[in-house]
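Q: Ribosomal-protein-alanine acetyltransferase, please. Structure only.
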Amino acid sequence: MLKKFKTLNQFFHPESNQISMDFTPFVTTVGNNRLQVMLASDENIPDLLVLEKEVYSGQTPWSSFSFKTELRKRKNSLYLFVYEASTLVAFIGARFHPREAHITNIAVVPKYQGQHIGHMLLELMIERARQNNCECVSLEVRIDNDRAKRLYSELGFEATFVRKNYYQDTHTDAVNMVLWLKPHRIRKRKFTL
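A: Structure for Ribosomal-protein-alanine acetyltransferase:
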């Protein structure tokens, strides 16, 4: 039977499980904003650290080193930056595996929040998960971030459980949320935010 496959790797990791991380930059209009959506690179990290400080009240939850490490994981990670002219206004990052896509980070500068930019970025990653035949998309969100939880719920994410002290710097809990793209057999438990 193994003779049918060119390599054992094909047998254990068939092409249907291969993840596509190709991305073509594009320009779009969201609200009144003409935005450039592009693949993140190391050159953008200084802009990203400025964005983090603006979003997280002067803090940078992820360091330059953390972002550089993530950006090098090109086989299964996709990080996108959104610029209006020369200003970074948002970004999103996700890791893709054969069965699951996990949103690692998303942020929109406060001035641009509520303009559907975060929604657009999440839809891009959800569509990428579908293209890669993932069963679900997951993420964590601060338990007190009601605005983000509403956005995720609007997109179909469901709260599954709480991760105690997930955000170590503030000892804040996180809610794990999942968007199922395919039917699943997990018994649903009642969980409210």
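A: Brief note, in case it's useful. Confidence is low (pLDDT under 50) at residues 1-16.
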